[in-house]
């Protein structure tokens, strides 16, 4: 399946303007949760959620999408 592309024009849409702040906040919340005392299973689940949110946020950039998902965890 081809990677979706959001054009610069689409990034100015009302939908993206509402969605991006939500995703930014969600990512921050998930990262804070990941800093807590979690089991390995809970940590893995949160890391998966973080990767998905980061992937969605990357649609709003001109940077190429990351093929190696482990790179999504590098800050």
List the helices and strands and how they pair.
Blueprint: H1 8-11, H2 14-34, H3 40-58
Helix pairs in contact: 2-3
Largest sheet features = none
Total number of beta strands: 0
Distance between the termini: 27 Å
Mean pLDDT across residues: 86
Output the radius of gyration: 14 Å
Element-level helix/strand string: HHH
Proportion of residues in β-strands: under 5%
Number of helices: 3
The computed structural class is mainly alpha
User: Helix content range of the residues, please?
Assistant: 55-70%
Cα shape:
elongated
Q: Unreliable runs, pLDDT <50, ≥5 residues?
A: none
Provide an overview of this structure.
It is a single chain. The chain is mostly helical and 75 residues long. It is 59% helix and 0% strand. It has three helices and no strands. It has helices at residues 8-11, 14-34, 40-58. Helix 2 (14-34) packs antiparallel against helix 3. The longest helix is centred in the N-terminal third of the chain and has 21 residues, at 14-34. The chain is elongated. The two termini are 27 Å apart. The model has no long low-confidence stretch (mean pLDDT 86).
